[in-house]
């Protein structure tokens, strides 16, 4: 088993799973009905993607772990998602600003992964890119609507962006896993990814009359299993059933 | 080892049986109509049915897999494997003409044909008016958007181009 290959795919799956889990917290609580449905719809796409990616990661690992084993039995130290994915949902401005940053990231990532030398990742990317395009259009609309909105909405989304900005460097950090994956053309060039993401975000924030926050320091560690306090609460809820009744199935 | 005539007879029998496997959300539509069924392979000791998922998170796929096995088991085919194929990715272009008609009958506006040069646009499944408004890109399922007809004032689902 190529450990770096396993970790690369696992990270993609963990990002989808943890972000999807956060999105589902709005189910029944969104500002209005159509948006509740839209959020649940997009969350489902993320969970679906997580299933495909975690199943694949389990295959690469070759120890018989299924998508369910990986989602529900691992401890926080074994999850390799970005910290940005696990942050609590906050208000709708926080949720949609975070969503936009990650949807744009995933849009460029999957565009790059379509030409991955890993045939399975390429196939998953082919499917995911269609859905991610819808997600990005929706979250971009929300950033524009809230930013170029009322004084209250503008204030809330600006604060939200300030709060999450220090977590964005992690999206483009390069470690030994990334170096090997890029060398084998399994993963797209991380520098290219960053410049495209930066260009899109800057353009949208400007159009939304928002200020691109100044980065004061960087927070990372998610990809090495070092998570925020929020992750513990998230996993307690998400993994409750399997932890309470191990091996339970439908 | 069966000869190729026997095998192709088997394959057409299998395909006929599989017309009974329908989309659990829209029971009038079979997996053939939707382009979800990609191929049937008659191996020496087992049958392989190849399907492709529509959207990544589509919850109907598991039900469809069970139904394929159930329908074939009832007809006496006990060794059936269902394989999910991701590439090439499913597209609404694979929905048959019959499928599109069925969707309309069910009150769902079918996806616009991408190669449609006439630019006919989306029509209300009830009154056929083109005077429609988008309520939400994200409808009740991953594959649908919510529209409202501004002529008869009824809401309807639109099967998104994918």
Overview of the structural elements:
- The complex is a heterodimer of chains A (about 250) and B (about 160).
- The model of chain A has no long low-confidence stretch (mean pLDDT about 95).
- Chain A is mainly alpha-helical and about 250 residues long.
- Chain A starts with a helix and ends in a 6-residue tail after the last helix.
- Helices cover about 65% and strands about 0% of the residues of chain A.
- Chain B has three helices and seven strands; from the N terminus they run αββαβαββββ.
- The N and C termini of chain B lie far apart (about 40 Å).
- Chain B has helices at about 5-20, 60-75, 95-105; strands at about 35-40, 45-50, 80-85, 110, 130-135, 145-150, 155-160.
- The longest helix of chain B has 15 residues, at about 5-20.
- The model of chain B has no long low-confidence stretch (mean pLDDT about 90).
- In chain B, the strands form two sheets. Chain B has a four-stranded mixed β-sheet. A three-stranded mixed β-sheet of chain B has the order 1-2-3, with helices on one face.
- In chain B, a hairpin with a 7-residue loop joins strand 5 and strand 6.
- Classes of the chains: A mainly alpha (about 250), B alpha/beta (about 160).
- At the A-B interface, helix 2 and helix 6 of A face loops of B.
- Report the end-to-end length of chain A measured between terminal Cα atoms: 31 Å
Q: Regions of chain B with pLDDT < 50 over 5+ consecutive residues?
A: none
Helix/strand order of chain A, N-terminal first = HHHHHHHHHHH
Low-confidence stretches of chain A: none
What radius of gyration of chain A results from the CA coordinates?
Answer: 18 Å
Taken from the alpha-carbon principal axes, the silhouette of chain A is: globular
Which value, in Å, is the CA radius of gyration of chain B?
A: 18 Å
Largest interface: A-B, 27 and 21 residues
State the helix count of chain B.
3
Q: What is the helix/strand order of chain B?
A: HEEHEHEEEE
Query: If you average the pLDDT of chain B, what whole number results?
Result: 88
DSSP helix count of chain A?
A: 11
Tell me the fraction of residues in β-strands of chain A, as a range.
under 5%
Please list the strands of the largest sheet of chain B in the order they lie side by side: 4-7-6-5
Structural class of the secondary elements of chain B? Answer: alpha/beta
Outline of chain B, from the CA principal axes? elongated
Strand content of chain B: 15-25%
Oligomer: heterodimer
How many runs of DSSP E, i.e. beta strands of chain B? 7
What does the average pLDDT of chain A come to? Answer: 96
């Amino acid at each position: 088993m190529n450990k770096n290959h396993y970790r690369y795919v696992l990270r993609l799956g963990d990002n989808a799973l943890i972000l999807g889990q956060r999105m589902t917290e709005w189910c029944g609580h969104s500002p209005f009905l159509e948006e509740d449905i839209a959020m649940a719809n997009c969350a489902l796409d993320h969970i679906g993607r997580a299933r495909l990616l975690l199943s694949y990661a389990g295959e690469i690992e070759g120890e018989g772990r299924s998508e369910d084993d990986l989602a529900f039995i691992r401890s926080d130290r074994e999850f390799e998602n970005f910290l940005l994915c696990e942050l609590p949902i906050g208000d709708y401005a926080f949720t949609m600003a975070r969503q936009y940053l990650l949807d744009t990231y995933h849009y460029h990532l999957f565009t790059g992964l379509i030409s991955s030398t890993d045939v399975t990742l390429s196939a998953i990317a082919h499917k995911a890119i269609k859905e991610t395009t819808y997600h990005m259009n929706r979250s971009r609309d929300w950033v524009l609507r809230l930013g170029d909105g009322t004084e209250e909405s503008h204030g809330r989304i600006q604060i939200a962006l300030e709060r999450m900005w220090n977590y964005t460097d992690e999206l483009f950090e390069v470690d030994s896993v990334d170096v090997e994956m890029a060398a084998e053309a399994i993963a797209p060039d991380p520098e290219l990814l960053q410049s495209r993401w930066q260009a899109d975000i800057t353009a949208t924030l400007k159009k939304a009359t928002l200020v691109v926050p100044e980065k004061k320091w960087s927070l990372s560690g998610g990809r090495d299993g070092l998570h925020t306090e929020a992750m513990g609460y998230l996993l307690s809820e998400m993994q409750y059933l399997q932890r309470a009744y191990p091996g339970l199935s439908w | 080892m069966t000869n190729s005539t026997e095998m192709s007879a088997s394959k057409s029998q299998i395909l006929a049986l599989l017309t009974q496997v329908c989309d659990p959300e829209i029971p009038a539509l079979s997996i053939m109509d939707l382009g979800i069924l990609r191929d049937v392979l008659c191996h020496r000791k087992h049958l392989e049915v190849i399907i492709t998922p529509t959207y990544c998170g589509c919850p109907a796929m598991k039900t469809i897999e069970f139904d394929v096995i159930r329908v074939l088991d009832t007809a006496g085919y006990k060794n059936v494997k269902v394989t999910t194929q991701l590439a090439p990715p499913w597209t609404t272009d694979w929905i048959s003409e019959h499928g599109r008609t069925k969707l309309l009958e069910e009150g769902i506006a079918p996806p616009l044909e991408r190669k449609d040069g006439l630019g006919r646009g989306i029509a209300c499944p009830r009154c056929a008016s083109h005077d429609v408004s988008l309520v939400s890109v994200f409808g009740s399922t991953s594959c649908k958007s919510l529209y409202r007809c501004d002529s008869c004032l009824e809401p309807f689902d639109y099967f998104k181009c994918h």
